[in-house]
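re: that chain from earlier
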Amino acid sequence: MNSVSGEESTQSRPEAQRRLAYFKDRRDEIVSSVRELVEIESPSDNKAAADSMAEFIADKFSKLGGEVCFHRAKDFGNHLQVNFAGKSAKPVLLLGHYDTVYPLGTLATMPCSVVGNKLTGPGVLDMKSGIALMLHAIAALQQWHNEDWPKEERHSKESRGQLPRPVNVLLVSDEEMGSDSSRAITESLAKKAAAVLVLEPSYGFEGAVKTARKGVGDYLLKVTGKASHAGLDFQKGVNAILELARQIEKVSGFTDLKKGLTVNVGIVSGGSRTNVVPAEAAAQVDVRIARMKDAAGIDKKMRSLRPFNRKCKIEITGGINRPPMERTAGVAALYAQAKAIARELGWKLGEAAVGGGSDGNFTAGLGIPTLDGLGGVGDGAHATHEHILVSELPRRAALIAGLIERV
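^ sequence. v structure.
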């Protein structure tokens, strides 16, 4: 990866501004691309709908000259890989997902529309705008680097040329469900890449990129007691819910905010009727870690739980399923390059550490320089007010194009 300090610039400000103007002139085209994607619903748990989305996106990339490859999945949509040839160099991996958390039919109550500076719709922020930005950044680079056209004409002539470096695109269909079926594909491609650019939503309305994410763990804590009639044979029963309540208090105490480690019991179930001493109870536990070195410790604590009431049995399953994305030297260097490009384009690019995970956690966990949050700027991911800011699309596209060239 090229070294660019926070104060250095490898491209003149006038050239950067010409590139920004290129995307501003095509802002409506980018908006149109985002709307096309949002208006094709692709819930994670509907394979037929997700596959239709993948085919649509594949056609868009194919028209740009990309080599399309589908990784077939049984229970989710097929994962889409697109390879673009370029000048001799290690490829850059553009990473994202096309699945959304919204069920089929959401568009009826949450239509895709533009009101003022806001483009709304299910999945518009997380992360269909990111996919549209990939398409337009690649198309622009092909035009700018077509040696058949003089440099001064590359912004006005419609032509397709070779990219300045190889680019691999991977869009998976199960990110919102944990990425179990796609993780191996993501990691395999990342190992071949010079850097990974993740087109997940940016952080906040100022569009900060994400240089750190917490790792994620999911545990299931099950308690087995003994049922009995709550009136006639109360003392013969062993109350699983009471035992679980004690365990919930204990695991909640594993939280260590100074380390960035949190333990949250999010779903609790148990019992059958109020007049029955419950024989079974369970809790689903979310664990977040900021540092990989804390993973083994919290896992040991969870698996070392013992019943307070020895007449109960405890079963703990699950574990850490996403490593944290830590702000390594490689991540910091990639952010410095992005910051320099943004400066040339006329704004200050911030960074953020966030609690949520993405597939960038996997690539960063392998030690591959990874920069996340390069996608749309907006608010309301997974919520009814999900939207992006239309005005931010041109400079996000210009930032992505610049990073593909320089890393």
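Residues 3-9, 153-159 have pLDDT under 50 and may be disordered.
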